[in-house]
Fold this sequence. Notes:
By secondary structure, chain A is α+β, with helices and mostly antiparallel strands. Chain A has helices at residues 6-27, 33-41, 65-78, 101-110, 143-153, 226-240, 251-258, 260-275, 287-294, 320-329, 357-370, 393-402, 433-442, 446-452, 518-532, 539-546, 549-557, 563-570; strands at 45-47, 52-56, 62-64, 82-85, 91-93, 127-128, 168-171, 185-191, 197-203, 215-222, 330-332, 338-343, 354-356, 374-377, 383-389, 417-418, 457-460, 474-481, 484-491, 507-508, 513-514. Chain A has 4 domains: 6-110, Alpha-Beta Plaits (2-Layer Sandwich), CATH 3.30.70; 142-290, Sulfite Reductase Hemoprotein, domain 1 (2-Layer Sandwich); 321-402, Alpha-Beta Plaits; 417-570, Sulfite Reductase Hemoprotein, domain 1, CATH 3.30.413. In chain B, helix 3 packs parallel to helix 4 (117-123). At the A-B interface, helix 1, helix 2, helix 5 and helix 6 of A face helix 3, helix 4 and helix 5 of B.
Amino acid sequence: MYQYTEFDRQFVRARAAQFRDQLRRHLDGELPEDDFKALRLQNGWYVQRHAPMLRVAVPYGELSSRQLHQLARIAREFDRDYGHFTTRQNLQYNWIPLARAADVMDLLAEVDMHGIQTSGNCIRNITSDALAGIAPDEVVDPRPYCEILRQWSTLHPEFAFLPRKFKIAITGAREDRAAIGWHDIGLQLLKNDAGEVGFKVLVGGGMGRTPIIGSVIGEFVPWQQILLFIEAIVRVYNRLGRRDNLYKARIKILVKAEGRKFADAVNAEFRHILEHDQGGAAHLIPQAELDRVAAHFQLPAGIEVRHAPDLPRLQANAPVAYLRWLERNVHTHRLPAYRAVTLSLKRAGPAPGDATGDQMDRAAELATRFSHGELRVTHDQNLLLPWVHECELHALWLAAREAGFATPNIGLLSDMIACPGGDFCALANARSIPVAAAITERFEDLDRLYDIGDIDLHISGCINSCGHHHSGHIGILGVDKDGAEWYQITVAGSDGSTNSGAATPGKVIGPSFAAEEVPDVIEAVIDTYCRERRPGELFIDTSRRLGAAPFRAAADAVRRATAVAMACSTT
Amino acid sequence: MRFIDTRHDRWQRVEGEDGPVPHPNPQSERLLTLEQWHAVRDTWPPNLPTGVMLPNTLDVDMLADDLRGPQSRLALVVLQFPKWTDGRAYSQARALRARHRFDGEVRAVGEVLVDMMPLMQRTGFDAVQLRHDQSVEAAVRALGFFPGHYQGDVRQPQPAFARDLAAENAAASARDGSALFAGQGI
C-alpha cells in the first residue's frame, strides 16, 4: 500500500497543527461556531446528537495493521471503546469530546492518518473497489490513480467550498464493486484496443431525495489527462451549481437540468485548461509519477506469484461452519495461491460495521499474521484481508472465529448495510440500528439465510441515504411522521454490481411501516420471493421480473399499526 | 497578502444618494460596478487606473478584453464573498490569473475570514478586506502552516509531482532554522 513520503508526513502534521490553532481559537471564544463549523467539518468533525463525531479518512479503504492498532487505541483512550466502519470505507468515532480533538488528530498523524475532507462541501475521501489490486477480473489496478487523485484533491484551494459535497469512486475491474454510478463522479479504468489506459467518466450520480444514476461524460479520457478533466467538471459545478437550495445543490441536479450544455461546458473548460491556462498542462500526469506511485502498490515482499505445489486437501469431514465460511467469506484472488478473506462485522449484537477497540486490535493482528499487515475497509462495512495464502485459510478461520469475525454471511441478508441512524446521527429521522438488530434476530438461522441466498439489504435512517437504501435489493428508509419513526421499503434497487444488474433505485412498496412492523414486512417480502422464485433465481432477479406489486401485497397483509393510516390515504 | 484598511483605501466608489452614479465622470482610482464600467468603458481614457466589482455569479470571461495585454483597462478586480462558505470567487480569481493572466490587484470583499487566507492566496487574491471582527495577526498566522501543497495553484503552478520536494524542504528548513514546517506560524 502507499507509504507516506516526508512531504506527505509534514503535510498531515501541518494540517493537525492548523486544526489545533483553529480549535484553540474556537474554545477561547475567538472563533464562533458559525465560522468554526466548516473548518471542523473539513477535518472530519461533526457535532452529533450526543457528542462530536469524528470521521477518519481511510483512503480508498486501505489500512495497515499499525494504523488499525492506533485506531483501536484512540477508541479506547478517547471514545467509548468502539468505532464504526462506513459505506465510504471510513471510520467514525462517536464520543470524543471536542476539547480533545486536536490530540486525536496528532495521534492520527503519527500513523499517516487524518480526517481531511471527510465532511464538508468539498471533494470527499475517494472510494474504490475493496478488491483493488487483487481481483481476478481487474483490468487496471485503480490504487495508483486513487492515490494521485487523493493528493490532487487534498486541500485543493479552489474547491474547498463547493455548492455541496462531492464524491468520487474509482474501479478498475470488470465488475463494479464501487457503485460508481451512484457517485458525483464515477471512474472506470479501461484499456482501449491499442492497450492504452483511460477512464470512462460518469458524472451526476447520487442518492438523497432525488436518486439519479450518473451519465457518461467521457467514454475514454486518457489517464494522463484525468486531473484536468476532473478539474473542468468540478469548476463548472462550482460556478453553476445551485446554492439557493440545499436539496438541489448536488451536481446531479445541475447535470440533469443542463443536459448536453453541461457536457459542452465541461469539454470547453477542459480544452481551456489544457491549452491555455498557466499550470494547466503541468497537471498532465507524467509516466514517471504514475510509476513512482504505482511502485507503492507492488506485491508485498514474500508473496508467491505461482501456485504452491503442496496444496492441503480439504478434509472430507471438514466442519460445515468452515465450509460455509470458505463459500461466503473467502474470495478468489488474481494470484492462484492467495485468497481475499472478509472479516464479518455483521453479527447478532453489535450494529453493522461496529468494532470495539479490542476487535480492531484483533483484526490488526490477523492482518499481521495472515495478510502482510494489510487490510481493507469494504463498502459493505466489513474488513477484508487481501493477501491470505490458501495454506493458511484454516488457521485464519480458527483465529477469526475466536475473534468473532467468522460469521459466514458475506453477501447474505444479515450482511446488511446500515447507517448509525437516529441513535447517533443528528440528521436522522429514525433509528437504523434497532431495525437492523430486529432483522438480524429474525433471520438468525443460517440454513434459512443460505436458502435465501445473495441479497443486498440497505438501511438508511433518513433521506441523506448514508445507508444506501436506494441501491439495496431491499431498501429501508427511516422517515419522520408527526414525530414518530416510520420506514419506507423498496425492492429491486441495484448498486451496479454483476449480481445486482445496472445501477437503479428501488421501487417503493406502499406507504411507510411502523418500526415494529418492519421485521414482519421483510419476512413477508422474503417469503414472497421464496415462493415465486424460479430455480436458482436470486432475489434481485425475481423482484425485477415480478415488479413491486406482489411484494406490496404481501407487505400490506402484515400491516397492523399502519392499517389506519392506509385507510386514510386510500380514501 | 495585503490587508485593506477601508479608512485609507485609495479606491473610491462613485455613489450618490440613490446608489451608484449611472455615468460617472472620468477619474483615477475609481471602483465601479459592472454596470458603471459598461457605461463608461468606451468613453473613459484608456490609461485611467480603474477598478471593477464583479458579482460572484458572473463569468470573468466577460471582462476578458479589459484584463490583459496592451488593451488592459483594469487595475483592480474586486470579487465577492456574500457568505464565507460560498466558494465561487475562488474560481473567478483563479481564472483571472491563470487564464486571463491579469496582473492587477485581485481583492476579496464580503464575509472574509482569517481561515480563508491560504485558499485566497493560492487562488490569486493579493488583497483582502477582512470582516470587521477579524484580526490581521491571525490572518497572517493562518498563511504560515503549510510548507507546500500537492496540486499547483496561482503562486506555484507546478504540482508537487513536478517539483523537487527535497530541495524545497531543504530550502525551507534553512529559512526557518528547523527541520519541520508544521505549525511554524504558531
